[in-house]
Amino acid sequence: EQLQRILEQQLSFVVRETAPAKKVYGPDEVRHAIHNGELVNYYQPKVSSRTGEVVGVETLVRWQHPVDGLVFPDQFITTAEQSRLIDDLTRVVLINALKQCRGWRDDGLDLSVAVNISMNNLNSLDFPDFIVDVARTAAVELPKLVLEITESQLMNNPVTALDILTRLRLKHITLSIDDFGTGHSSLRQLRDIAFNELKVDAGFVHGASQSPSQRAILRASVDMARGLGMQSVAEGVENADDWNFLLDLDLCDIMQGYFIARPMPASAMKDWMQEWEMRRHD
Ligand code: C2E
Ligand code: CA
Ligand code: CA
Ligand code: CA
């Protein structure tokens, strides 16, 4: 009976956490959004753990829906990935991000810009050349462009995808492995493709001070990154507790999360930067 009660409690918790189901948009709606300029790039800062300096931003796509308001990627990225619309989506996001990166540089802000790419983007052999063209047009040096690919997608590695990653790397584009710890890439892949950056998934970062097992995985990931000559990023630094804990242990090179800043439109960056300068010198 007691077991029954516990199970029911847990079940109601699960139901509460997952409901209400969010709308997932279909391919026609997503196509319309991409081609009518309804996608907007938001940006979340990445800061150096050592100095607190802003080293770059990650762009996170939003859909400014005319009726439904601001729509988040979990409601349309999968649709795009399943329908090849992801090629156009990624291109739009990349072009916007690189233009913005150039704009910031003209304003005296030297930031790298990270773009999330999907494994499906790595089917097109012309993807590296496309990127080089866009970067050249925007006059952004290729190492300033960071491409983030999730570890779970890396696991399903068609040979062409690995080939394209290698070509991107040879063009000196920065490659980052995202959500590390949630997939299981082989260590050989990490070595062979020569990723530059490893982002430890938020699930091992937020709350690490309270959890020895999270901490162990976090520490092992960071050690491995260092051993392979990669920068390590802690994502999901959500509160002061997470921040202080990571700083005390001197773990990751770079931090990202709500505690530092939420993703914001490009227009909000300047004000945020000023605010951050004050915060970090406090
Ligand atoms: P991601 O690349 O792992 O991005 C991190 C997500 O965590 C973002 O959600 C971000 O807003 C959120 N986040 C940042 N800091 C914190 C924190 O401290 N606490 C918590 N709880 N969350 C935090 P978002 O923007 O909803 O994006 C979700 C996912 O959608 C991204 O996960 C990425 O996989 C995908 N995505 C976003 N933009 C693009 C894109 O342009 N192209 C592709 N292919 N995927 C994208
Ligand atoms: Ca990412
Ligand atoms: Ca991530
Ligand atoms: Ca993620």
UniProtKB/TrEMBL annotation:
> Does the UniProt entry include the keyword Metal-binding?
no
| EAL domain ranges (all copies) | 23-277
> Which keywords label this protein?
Phosphoprotein
> Which superkingdom is the protein from?
Bacteria
Signal peptide start-end: none
Official protein name in the record: EAL domain-containing response regulator
Instruction: Say which species the protein is native to.
Output: Marinobacterium rhizophilum
Q: What is the lineage of its organism?
A: Bacteria, Pseudomonadati, Pseudomonadota, Gammaproteobacteria, Oceanospirillales
Q: Which residues of the full protein are shown?
A: 114 to 395 of 404
